[in-house]
Every structure is written in structure tokens, then in C-alpha cells.
Design goal:
GO molecular function: ATP binding; corrinoid adenosyltransferase activity
CATH architecture: 3-Layer(aba) Sandwich
Number of domains: 1
Shape: globular
Keywords: Transferase
Largest sheet: 6 strands, parallel
Organism: Propionimicrobium lymphophilum ACS-093-V-SCH5
CATH topology: Rossmann fold
Structural class: alpha/beta
Protein name: Cob(I)yrinic acid a,c-diamide adenosyltransferase
Strand order of the largest sheet: 3-2-4-5-1-6
CATH superfamily: P-loop containing nucleotide triphosphate hydrolases
Distance between the termini: 44 Å
Number of helices: 7
Strand content: 15-25%
Length: about 190
């Protein structure tokens, strides 16, 4: 039987899914909490391109520097593992499946090394729902992670198999969005 302390420190597998806005934002907020606790945080951005300058990356880089300079918080590692969303015509030439496999191989390596206490696998549900990785192998790897490594997976269309094994699942449901009226995204709101 587990003690209250053991239950409180059990590593979690967390999934943020659904068609609404806020999946990645919620995960990055969790990353801020983790950093403040002195945890190492790894952000693995699948699909998204490094050409898109997201505000969270600048904030995380600033926090990483504060850790390096002053020892406050934990280390932060940010990896951009994609070339942009596949439905954009400019990305037709990109082999997203190979990029996803390379990114997943990096995550597996870091899990084996226990590099981070929190892993944010941003847009990873997209990778899984497209069948770019073997869902059973992913679930097995995540289930065998050692130490106290927490994983947050974001993106629409989380596979049922992942939802079934996760400890915490939140669905962000869209009720209304400016995009529905043809409005474009805004700095500070969407990125």
C-alpha cells in the first residue's frame, strides 16, 4: 500500500486534447510551476517550426538564463522538432514522419537518462493520431519511465489508447473563437 507521500510524488502522464484553444498554454503554465520548484523542464515541440517565434520560448529562455546565472529554478531545454503544420502548402515537401521519429528518439534518450522531471511533448497527439509513430511502443516507453519523470502531451485528437493509460486528461472544447469569423491570430494571445 502506498503512503500519502508516495501518492503525492507519483509521476504523472497528463494529456491535454480537444478542439479548443489552450492545450499548449496550459502545459507551458505547468512548466512554469515545475521550473519554480527547481525541476528540469524539457519542451519537445513536434510539428511546429522554429520559424514561428512563440512567446513561451522567449520566456523559457529567460528563465533558463536566470537558472544558469543565479541558480534560481531548474534547467530548461527547448527542442523544435518539426517543420510546420502539414496542412500548409509550403510544407508539402517535408517528411514529418521522419522528423517525428527523430524527435521521439530524442525523448526516449532523455527519458532513459532521466534528464528532466517534466517533459512537455507539444503537439504530440497530432503525431500519434496521424500514425507517424507506433502508439503501442510510445505507451510502453512512457509506462516504463523510471524515476520521477512527469509527461504532458498536448494536441488535438489524442488516441483512445493514450487516454486510457493517462493519469490526467483534460479536453479543451471550443465554444467560440475569432478564427470562426475569419480573424487572424494575435501576438500575445495565440503565440
Amino acid at each position: 500500500m502506498s503512503s500519502t507521500r508516495e501518492k503525492r510524488h507519483k509521476p504523472r502522464l497528463i494529456v491535454h486534447t480537444g478542439d479548443g484553444k489552450g492545450k499548449s498554454t496550459a502545459a507551458f503554465g505547468m512548466g512554469l510551476r515545475s521550473w519554480a520548484q527547481g525541476w528540469n523542464v524539457g519542451v519537445y515541440q513536434f510539428v511546429k517550426s522554429g520559424k514561428w517565434k512563440v512567446g513561451e520560448k522567449l520566456a523559457y529562455e529567460t528563465l533558463a538564463k536566470a537558472h544558469e546565472d543565479n541558480g534560481v529554478g531548474g534547467s530548461i531545454f527547448w527542442y523544435t522538432l518539426g517543420e510546420g503544420f502539414t496542412w500548409l502548402r509550403s510544407n508539402d515537401h517535408t517528411d514529418q514522419q521522419s522528423l517525428a521519429q527523430e524527435g521521439w528518439d530524442l525523448v526516449k534518450k532523455h527519458l532513459a537518462e532521466e534528464k528532466n522531471r517534466l517533459y512537455i511533448l507539444d503537439e504530440f497527439n497530432h503525431v500519434l493520431s496521424r500514425g507517424w509513430l507506433d502508439i503501442d511502443e510510445v505507451i510502453d516507453t512512457l509506462g516504463r519511465r523510471t524515476g520521477n519523470q512527469n509527461v504532458v502531451i498536448t494536441g488535438r485528437k489524442a488516441p483512445k489508447k493514450l487516454i486510457d493509460v493517462a493519469d490526467l486528461v483534460t479536453s479543451m472544447d471550443k465554444i467560440k473563437h475569432p478564427f470562426d469569423k475569419g480573424e487572424r491570430g494575435q501576438a500575445g494571445i495565440e503565440w
